[in-house]
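Hypothesis: this fold can be encoded by more than one sequence.
Test: take the structure tokens below, design a sequence, compare later.
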């Protein structure tokens, strides 16, 4: 634990102003999106407010990915950090992923608080718990997307080192991305996968799923692990854990190869 605390303190020292700036921008945009003074529209409840608040979720995804990739890119220039550290590659990268995840969690909670305050005067108490569960699922999905972006980035970095041409490596990475999307679509259509995803409902009926419109309307890669019938299931949490660990371990292994090339 002492090592993890030290790694997180280092990330805070390196990226705190970047993270704080993103959080402030997200809060300002959230206020502009939900304030009736600005929008001229008084939403009926928290569900409706959350449904209309897609921009801040986009920004939170961008914040997490940017925090991780900028930090990795800056420290790639110093191989001694990676090759002579007492921490393993997975710990070094894991601390960066964890820091990005904590920053996004803080931002989403603050944005959620703003949305909650905006809807508190015309929302029932029964909406509060589903609202908080929805925020939790947004946090979970954002961290998953950060790990997906890290995995794709490491593939590009390894290919660029091998090929020597950035544009060629980018083209190959895009081809691999398309192939990966086809494979993911095939996996998503497997009945047993869908069964696991819906297994063990943790929280009631899916009454506030409209609060995740950006995910459900964009593509299957981002929404593919979200359960359809409820907000949260034990099966979906298990799938998030399995896919996140597999992509993180794969990405960290590729990144180590890139640094040692």
């Amino acid at each position: 634990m002492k090592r993890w605390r030290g790694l997180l303190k280092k990330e805070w020292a390196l990226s705190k102003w970047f993270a704080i700036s993103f959080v402030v921008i997200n809060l300002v945009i959230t206020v502009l999106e939900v304030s009736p003074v600005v929008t001229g529209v008084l939403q009926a409840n928290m569900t409706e407010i959350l449904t209309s608040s897609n921009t801040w979720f986009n920004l939170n995804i961008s914040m997490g990915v940017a925090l991780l990739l900028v930090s990795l890119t800056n420290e790639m220039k110093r191989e001694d950090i990676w090759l002579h550290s007492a921490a393993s590659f997975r710990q070094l990268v894991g601390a960066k992923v964890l820091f990005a995840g904590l920053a996004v969690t803080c931002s989403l909670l603050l944005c959620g608080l703003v949305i909650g305050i905006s809807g508190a005067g015309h929302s029932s108490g029964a909406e509060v718990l589903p609202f908080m569960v929805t925020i939790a699922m947004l946090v979970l999905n954002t961290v998953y997307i950060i790990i997906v972006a890290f995995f794709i980035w490491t593939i590009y970095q390894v290919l660029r080192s091998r090929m020597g041409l950035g544009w060629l490596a980018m083209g190959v990475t895009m081809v691999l991305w398309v192939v990966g999307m086809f494979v993911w679509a095939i996996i998503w259509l497997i009945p047993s996968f869908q069964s696991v995803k819906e297994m063990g409902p943790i929280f009631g009926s899916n009454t506030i799923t409209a609060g995740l419109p950006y995910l459900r309307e964009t593509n299957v890669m981002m929404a593919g692990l979200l359960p359809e019938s409820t907000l949260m299931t034990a099966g979906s949490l298990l799938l998030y854990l399995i896919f996140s660990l597999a992509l993180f371990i794969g990405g960290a292994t590729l990144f180590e190869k890139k640094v040692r090339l």
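Residues 207-211 have pLDDT under 50 and may be disordered. Residues 2-260 form one domain.
Hypothesis status: open.
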